[in-house]
Amino acid sequence: MVERRQVVPVSLEEAFAFFADPWNLEAITPPWLGFRVVEAPQRLARGSRLLYRLRLFGLPVSWSTEIVDWRPPRTFTDRQLSGPYPLWEHAHRLNPVPGGTEIFDLVRYRLHGGLLAPLVGRLFVRGRLDRIFDYRAQRLGELLR
After folding, report:
1. In the chain, how many domains are there?
2. What predicted TM-score, i.e. pTM, was given to this entire model?
3. Which of 30, 43, 77, 122 could hold 91 in an S-S bridge, CB 3.0 to 4.6 Å?
4. 20-29 pLDDT, tens digit each
């Protein structure tokens, strides 16, 4: 599981509008992932499906997700339909706070590998996810000000 919180100095509506545009994903994803949105609607809604391409450990990967929960301007959740994880569910929650909006991310994921999955997670996956979300926080801080 990954949990992250950050406060950005913009209104709840402005922050949610940023996330409602799926094309903004490229701007908050580290360049070393080679992440590209291939298919997405102009604006997200419940049932929206998105297709991405990226590189994990140097290998090309296709990843598709669906917006399974959509409650503007407070929360939405995307779930992987196909991709590198047996389970990937990313809940985004936004709350007004003094000075701006708190962005809370909660990612539940499961790895392939059976009994070796915890070891694979510690050695290869968790650190990369932390770096991805560190980059995301930095970029959100730059873009939402």
Report:
1. 1
2. 0.93
3. 77
4. 999 999 999 9
